Amino acid sequence: xxxxxxxxxxxxxxxxxxxxxxxxxxxxxxxxxxxxxxxxxxxxxxxxxxxxxxxxxxxxxxxxxxxxxxxxxxxxxxxxxxxxxxxxxxxxxxxxxxxxxxxxxxxxxxxxxxxxxxxxxxxxxxxxxxxxxxxxxxxxxxxxxxxxxxxxxxxxxxxxxxxxxxxxxxxxxxxxxxxxxxxxxxxxxxxxxxxxxxxxxxxxxxxxxxxxxxxxxxxxxxxxxxxxxxxxxxxxxxxxxxxxxxxxxxxxxxxxxxxxxxxxxxxxxxxxxxxxxxxxxxxxxxxxxxxxxxxxxxxxxxxxxxxxxxxxxxxxxxxxxxxxxxxxxxxxxxxxxxxxxxxxxxxxxxxxxxxxxxxxxxxx
Length: 364
Fold this sequence. Notes:
about 375 residues; alpha/beta; 4-stranded parallel beta sheet; 10 strands; about 50% helix
């Protein structure tokens, strides 16, 4: 039997190489960093104890409401308004991900949220990229190798998406690999930003779209068929187009299209449970979607709000669905195949990092 068919231990999962496509910079701050900066700038927090503050974020986000979940970002965004603070947050993000075994990450941020105290959009973007480069160096000094790239988000309820998209194109040779729209789905369909997505396609630029998280199949359909999304941020509600009561399960036309076209699903189980898209891990659609061979990827979404990491997400999936090394390798390779970096760079990470380390760790 191949060693990849074994069930990994939690320690082994921690050491596996991981690829992350859906992680929000403003959702992954260290609690102590929030406290340090808040004290400097005079921002009031629910607690000034790091453990208590971390628990406040988690509990506040366990409401089952995406709207309530998004409200917690007022505190993290408040401490990301100065250049030095943005650099610190981005640097720590890269270090923290690398310590968890992440070797490739696409971290997303809406730069317009970082301009409340006068920073320009380009200045905010450059601060993030500077922080990532510093974090990569710090990680390397600790013995961890990570490549951290940036996705720029436009906020779907605002009117700056075109401006941000143009900056995504401008900075694509400097560490920005794509574009996304974030914010509340319901009431703000992706087709509202259609001109922006058409611009990105003309520029041969990559983009993903948050869809099928809090809102259902129409959101997914619009993201793919009207806007041309290469990937779906979450996409968990595609399960609504699958009849699981039939053997074998029957896929509706949209679900079949997503699967057959190999459209990647950026799935974030812990976050989906918090916002009410699933009751628990065992109930999460990722198990059925994996069996049906959708191109699923595993992600963190907001590590602070969900008190999570890539290792935790993977360990929960091992526990809920009895996933083995091969299952975890498949979602890791899925993520790299779906990354917004050039093909040869994706292939190099798969062949020189992922496959060899999975074989080594599973063979222990």
